[in-house]
Amino acid sequence: MALADMREPIETGCPDGFQYMHPVMRKNYGQWRWHDHPRPGVLRHVANSGDEIWTVKAGTQRILDVFTLRKLCDIGDKFADGYVRFTIRSNIEYMVSDGSKVEPLISELEGAGFVVGGTANSVSMISHTQGWLHCDIPGTDASGVVKAMMDELIDEFRNCRMPNRVHITTSCCQINCGGQGDIAINVQHTKPPKINHDLVGNICERPSVVARCPVAAIRPAMVNGKPSLEVDEKKCICCGACYPPCPPMQINDAEHTKLAVWVGGNHSNARGKPTFQKLVAAGIPNNPPRWPEATAIVKRILKAYQEDARDWERINDWIERIGWPRFFEKTNLPFTKFHVDNWRGARASLNASTHIRF
Ligand code: SF4
Ligand code: SF4
Q: Which domain range does residue 79 map to?
């Protein structure tokens, strides 16, 4: 084939965002003079040129059916010149170049059942992973946890009553592709996997399962005359990493798969160093459909933070100032042996990060 007939390779990754940007934002890119926050859920940006743009933010349930998407897009056509964008926390944002359209847009969104808020010092929408709908390894349903919690925290999304913004995350397995946040609710396995030896030989690539274990606890073994695997339960840290490549390494369990709450994680290095979240509550019942025990702990942490933190302190700044012992006192959470990280491998693996050096 002649070189001229060959097609250009299609690049993967994020598409160029400019094509989806509201024209006023494109025109004034990098030329904004100031911005303010006229009310919860609304930001106003003013450019050097004098152009203004209002951003109206509303929460969504992230996993959206086509009818809801059409409804949201129709609202965008009516008020925002056909431009919308979704944030990483499943909020939808409308950019409005005419200030007189802001209040009618909010009324239309609220009339359609959407909640406007999530800006500045509020509890923003909880970011979450795939859950039962479309991941193959979840131990709980992150989306369900989000729904149950946001039902109780919705007034904190609608209002700006926290010392600073609060980013909450949930993850449905211990691999935790949801990352970390000011408060994170993650699965915690408490028992090593139970192996279904009849299936391992048929469906698992044993060398890749052995390689997957971060603490070298898995070895090949012959069981009942069949090739299988065995786990050194003294070494196993119950992370669940062997379960995705080998489903017979059954780690999900109605009784022993729990939830854990972590606090103080911050990815950003904009105003201070990034921080790792720390475990503050372990062994919480994984209790669908409303997960009341986990929600009660999150509300308790938020209440202590709201009452005790200084203006603009994020949760990690607040704990840094008062110290962990006082955090446990103020939240009335018990400090147990499960909070002590005694994993010897942490020193080597954390040193692999660009930010952390021991
Ligand atoms: S947290 Fe785990 S189960 Fe949930 S989507 Fe991510 S990898 Fe899948
Ligand atoms: S659960 Fe994690 S630590 Fe335990 S055997 Fe599987 S991969 Fe290894």
A: 19-111
